[in-house]
Design goal:
Layout lengths: L5 E4 L5 H12 L3 E5 L4 H15 L3 E4 L6 H15 L4 E4 L14 H29 L2 E6 L12 H20 L5 E8 L5 H14 L3 H12 L8 H11 L11 E4 L7
Parallel strand pairs: 1-2, 1-4, 2-3, 4-5, 5-6, 6-7
Helix pairs in contact: 1-8, 3-4, 4-5, 6-7
This protein binds nicotinamide-adenine-dinucleotide (NAD).
Nicotinamide-adenine-dinucleotide binds next to helix 1, helix 4 and helix 6.
């Protein structure tokens, strides 16, 4: 289904991004990986996806808190894999603090990675997508792009902004073959969430398992984590012909979180 297409997935060395990269590769897309981590581990992911799915893979360690490196990521994908048909803006971080104590530099960092990087990547990639009259831009927002929680001022602001950016880009390209949509996951058990579970366990002097259960019970009615593979399948759908009129949508896959 995606043979001959090239996908850039930001923050794909771990968690949801890796799940999305694997799902797109399983459908035949060549993949530009990005993100931080142990170089040997990243090399294993890169060669593993290539051999498991018979696709071309490349890797860029671009730091997406820096606009020039974000632009460089799109340039690297275009020169190494020939073009970019699918852009998945997934890289993101979380910082938790009440607003009055929220460190200024952390506010800037969360906004730069979770929101501004998507803007710079989209800006860099849209002209070539428009020239071919086909493109898929998928922004991994969050249920926190739709509702708020305490102590997440920067994250919630960035994710609401990302949903807004999704709508603007969708509208600007509405008469073209370029679509832009957002995916809004609830809790997914990745390193980003594990840190919050660990902090909860320490704060309440409970086990990590119990903290994980409480975290789910507080917000996610299914009491089950969403998986990176399930989110990957939603991204695959967004890349399909069936989704060609899905434009500016923010689809929540969240175990019922947003329905409450
Ligand atoms: P993760 O920590 O497992 O992965 C984050 C990825 O982003 C990693 O590959 C990391 O190296 C990369 N990254 C971080 N900073 C970067 C930078 N400056 N430049 C380039 N890459 C960078 O986290 P995850 O849970 O898989 O989160 C992925 C996305 O999904 C994020 O945008 C997050 O906000 C969103 N999300 C996660 C959940 C969840 O429950 N885990 C829920 C909703 C939304």
């Amino acid at each position: 289904m995606l043979k001959g297409k090239v996908a850039v997935v930001t923050g794909s060395t771990s968690g949801i991004g890796l799940g999305v990269a694997r799902a797109l590769a399983a459908k035949g897309a060549d993949i530009m990986l990005n993100g931080f981590g142990d170089p040997a581990e990243i090399e294993k992911i890169k060669t593993g996806i290539a051999s498991e799915f018979g696709v071309r893979t490349a890797y860029s360690g671009a730091d997406l808190s820096k606009p020039a490196e974000t632009k460089g990521l799109i340039e690297a994908a275009t020169s190494e894999l020939g073009k970019v048909d699918i852009l998945v803006n997934n890289a993101g971080i979380q910082v938790v603090s009440p607003v009055q104590d929220f460190p200024d530099d952390k506010w800037e960092l969360v906004l730069s990675i979770n929101l501004s990087a998507a803007f710079y990547a989209i800006k860099a990639v849209v002209p070539q997508m428009q020239a071919r009259n086909w493109g898929r831009i998928i922004n991994i927002a969050s249920v926190h792009g739709l509702v708020a929680s305490v102590n997440k001022a920067a994250y919630v602001s960035a994710k609401h902004g990302l949903v807004g950016l999704t709508k603007v880009v969708a509208l600007e390209n509405a008469e073209t073959g370029v679509t832009c949509n957002a995916i809004c996951p609830g809790w997914v058990l990745t390193p980003l969430v594990q840190k919050q579970i660990d902090a909860w366990a320490e704060r309440e002097s409970i086990s990590n398992e119990e903290a994980g259960r409480r975290l789910l019970t507080e917000k996610q009615p299914s009491k089950q984590f969403v998986t990176p593979a399930q989110l990957g399948e939603l991204a695959v759908f967004m890349c399909s012909d069936a989704a060609s009129q899905l434009r500016g949508a923010a689809i929540n896959m969240d175990g019922g979180w947003y329905a409450q």
